[in-house]
What we know:
By secondary structure, chain A is mainly alpha-helical. Chain A has helices at residues 5-33, 38-52, 61-75, 80-95, 103-121, 131-146, 151-168, 192-207, and strands at 3-4, 100-101. Chain A has one domain (3-207): Alpha Horseshoe (Serine Threonine Protein Phosphatase 5, Tetratricopeptide repeat), CATH 1.25.40.340. Chain A starts with a strand and ends with a helix. A 4-stranded parallel β-sheet of chain B has the order 2-1-3-4, with helices on both faces. A 4-stranded antiparallel β-sheet of chain B has the order 5-8-6-7, with helices on one face.
Amino acid sequence: MAITKDDVLSWIRDYAQVIEENFEMLTDLDREIGDADHGANMRRGFKAVLEKLPSVEDKDIGAILKSVGMTLLSKVGGAAGPLYSTFFMKAGTTIGAKSEMAIDDWAKALEASTAGIAALGKAQPNDKTMLDALYPAVDALNTAIGNGSSNGEALQKSADAAHEGMLATIPLVARKGRASYLGERSAGHQDPGATSSYLLIKSAAETWADS
Amino acid sequence: MVSILLVSHSYQLAQGTAELVRQMASSADLKIRVAAGMGDEHEEIGTNAIEIMEALSELTEDGDVLVLMDLGSAVLSTEMALQMLDEEIAGKVRMCPAPFVEGAIAAGVQANMGSPIQEVYDEAMNALAAKQQQIVGDVEVQTPAEPKSFETPALAEQVEDKTEVLVTVTNPTGLHARPASTFIQTVKKHDASLTVTNRTTGAEPVLVKGMISVMLLAAKQGDELLLQATGPDRTALLAELEQLFLDNFGE
Ligand SMILES: Nc1ncnc2c1ncn2[C@@H]1O[C@H](COP(=O)(O)OP(=O)(O)O)[C@@H](O)[C@H]1O
Ligand SMILES: [Mg+2]
């Protein structure tokens, strides 16, 4: 079974909806250790993505994802803008001009996207960033595929790992981004970017559960 | 001439900083652009890599560009913009980790004099030192481009065609940014190099390279400065500088 271009479009639309439902929660998390704008940033970005989507929905998966990345770049504003933009652009270039992809393609894309975020933001694991949700998601997906899990199972494992990674950011002291200005005081709060990243992986797992 | 791009989360901050720079570096040739804020009217706080890309494409048509950024995600957006630009354009761009306001002013004054990008960069990087010295006293300054031969009076004295003049600072606030900027622009107009010793503080002689080196003299009202010049235009330079001190730098 494969993940089709329409599945990819559904995922993006679903995530935009998830952001709409959770933007206040994301902003509240950012209020604790940042500048209270992560939810608003993501909401503005994905609203623009939804407006742009009809003009690219006839294109291939790579082109669609790259277009999402470009839109986020000019709309999101905070650190999350260039970082999520990199995520979607790297995924787009990795998958390329396909109208459907295998789970392996997605695993490669997720890995390249995560590496892209790490290269741009220069964060390490446990710096209390979105990488702390994404790295475990990549790992769990690769392991599940290696163990011969079904697509749905592999995606669910990936989302579960992202969830754990997100929760594991709570005790961490932030070492990158705005929260790092708080030093030790950033401990005890869940990272907003790790939360939005978990929601992204979870949305993929739910949307593509039967792929 | 090197251009300057100010990348900030706040449009007001960038515009205000650009205004401060223009006050000190007023030549019409100096290009200062801002890429700041988000949204149609730049009214929201944030940075936009696409806007940065556009600004860089335009500014690099005239040569090298120094970029100053306010906070971390302004750096990310600038890096993202550089990744997406052609190498030919990106190669003309230098990101500068200097403090935003001080760095912009120092870079603007230096660029305004037609200095190459490395000197503009170094000058911006020293900008914090001048403020630190004002508030907490002695600081180490990084001046990588400074030729060693002028650093000690002993060596400066070996230069034969040297001329010197002793002046007294009369400005009530000393040689602060504005007179320092006039001072350095006068130096740069002449084919000569200048070493200044603050006789009153007894500090080491300083080879004057940019505005910041003048500010680092920490010259207060009443301080005596020994100006030593070498090079073909040394006499004209010293005469003009002496006049500036007599005129209180027009203040
Ligand atoms: N250098 C970085 N590398 C990876 N992720 C980062 C980095 N800097 C910030 N982040 C992520 O971005 C999130 C904050 O996003 P957002 O609030 O939209 O931007 P800003 O911090 O500029 O206000 C953080 O919670 C963190 O997960
Ligand atoms: Mg924020």
